[in-house]
Design brief:
alpha+beta, 2 domains, Rossmann fold, single chain, Ubiquitin-like (UB roll), 3-stranded mixed beta sheet
């Protein structure tokens, strides 16, 4: 007959064996589960890396090499000048070129008012620019400064060689910095007038002069003096320019010699003929 102590020992031994077997089975199951998870995680990673490498191969293919740079919106500047200013070149991958940086380079030029650089896939870069429109030329310290309708200096020239722009005199220019408004005490009324001139009338006006009392005097290409008076507004100047163009057309048809045209009153223009 088995004693009580022996029975307890047999039961404890059986329990330990059972527990060890269970632990071994659990360890084996956990290891298998981890291996399955690793395999499941590796497959998506491998697919993702394959897709990335495929995209890189496509992006860097010769198909996306820039073969053409187009420029739109230029007037006085040449396309080659715009491309050179932008820093863009053909032969590079279209994704390697930086449109933002190229735009900043273009906007650093005072002649350019706005710029936009876009990619046109697969191999073209398009540069859209809008130039500042020069309305006149201001003499300053022996040089000639082209200005826009806001009085900003667009460029400085050594000689006055742009006969399409009127020269603006008497404004008292005190300081010039390219890209910034010209420092001049009497520039504003001349700017208003110059900005109102269309291309046809601008080609007929050779000089806009501002007297010390802020009155305006024009001189045509035929050296006809046009008295504009003072205290002009944009509205009155616009009407005076309309009247002036009509008077100049009539005088050109009649072929008579004119001493001056008085437009101090746009409703009652006075034309003084030269006496023989």
């Amino acid at each position: 007959m088995v004693s009580f102590e022996a029975s307890v020992q047999i039961f404890v031994g059986w329990g330990k064996g059972k527990t060890g077997k269970m632990r071994a089975e659990m360890g084996s199951s956990t290891g298998n589960a981890r291996r399955r998870l690793k395999r499941r995680g590796f497959v998506p990673f491998l697919l993702m890396m394959t897709a990335v490498l495929a995209c890189l191969a496509v992006i860097r293919s010769p198909y996306f090499t820039v073969t053409r740079i187009a420029v739109e919106g230029t007037s006085s500047l040449k396309s080659d000048e715009i491309i050179l200013m932008s820093g863009l070149v053909c032969g590079r991958n279209i994704f390697e070129l930086d449109p933002v940086r190229a735009t900043r380079r273009l906007l650093s030029n005072p002649k350019i008012e706005s710029a936009r650089v876009v990619r046109r896939f697969p191999s073209t870069i398009v540069i859209h620019v809008r130039e500042r429109r020069a309305v006149g030329v201001v003499p300053y310290s022996g040089y000639f400064v082209e200005i826009d309708d806001l009085g900003r200096a667009i460029c400085i020239r050594e000689a006055y060689d742009n006969d399409k722009l009127p020269i603006i005199t008497g404004v008292g220019a005190r300081g010039v910095r390219v890209g910034e408004p010209v420092d001049a005490v009497r520039l504003q009324p001349a700017l208003w007038l110059a900005a109102l001139l269309d291309d046809r009338l601008r080609s007929r006006i050779s000089e806009i002069h501002v007297d010390t009392d802020m009155s305006l005097v024009l001189f045509t290409e035929d050296r006809i003096k046009v008295i504009m008076g003072r205290d002009n507004t944009r509205e009155t100047l616009n009407e005076k320019m309309r009247v002036l163009e009509a008077v100049l057309d009539r005088l050109a048809n009649e072929g008579e010699a004119v001493q001056y045209i008085d437009l101090r009153s746009e409703k009652q223009p006075v034309v003084k003929m030269k006496t023989q």
